[in-house]
Amino acid sequence: MTDVIRTADLVDTNDEDVRFCEMQWKSFGRRDGFHGEVVTIRTFEDNRLLRETLGGDGSGKVLVVDGGGSLRCALVGDQIAALAQSNGWKGLLINGAIRDSADIAGMDFCVMALGQAPKKSGKTGHGARGIPVRFGNVEFRTGDYLYADADGVLVADRPVHAG
């Protein structure tokens, strides 16, 4: 995609302004990556708060979900990814698993996660939104700016790209 800002280029020009998330990600969807203003969620094996959040206007935003790294069940499936896409979210970063990966692969969207799991998550609403979350040796805060592509994930206090 032409609108993907390459993280390697950002590091070359803004190394002191970006933080590198030291984790390996799998990318799902037809988009090569995404960037936007961060909204955070912390939850564990429960996706009700994700669905509620992604049901709102996501113009220019990315959802960063700290799912505790669990691969026992999926926090995002094709329905939640489609909801995010239809509400203008730029992408999803999931410290956990997704499901329906074949369906998400056909979407003009990008979800980055640790892996896949066929099992559904809980629906109790457990978790918190808008709080700092930490994984991959990086703290993500609502209002930060995130860049993600095949090379990795960068976070900055503000947008650091030109244009």
From TrEMBL:
SUPFAM superfamilies: RraA-like. InterPro entries: RraA, RraA/RraA-like, RraA/RraA-like_sf. Coiled coil: none annotated. Its cofactor is a divalent metal cation. Pfam families: RraA-like (PF03737). Catalyzes the aldol cleavage of 4-hydroxy-4-methyl-2-oxoglutarate (HMG) into 2 molecules of pyruvate. Also contains a secondary oxaloacetate (OAA) decarboxylase activity due to the common pyruvate enolate transition state formed following C-C bond cleavage in the retro-aldol and decarboxylation reactions. It comes from Pseudorhizobium endolithicum. PANTHER family: 4-HYDROXY-4-METHYL-2-OXOGLUTARATE ALDOLASE 3-RELATED (PTHR33254:SF4). It catalyses: oxaloacetate + H(+) = pyruvate + CO2; 4-hydroxy-4-methyl-2-oxoglutarate = 2 pyruvate. The lineage of its organism: Bacteria, Pseudomonadati, Pseudomonadota, Alphaproteobacteria, Hyphomicrobiales. Belongs to the class II aldolase/RraA-like family. Its EC number is 4.1.1.112, 4.1.3.17. This is 4-hydroxy-4-methyl-2-oxoglutarate aldolase. Homotrimer. Keywords: Lyase, Metal-binding.
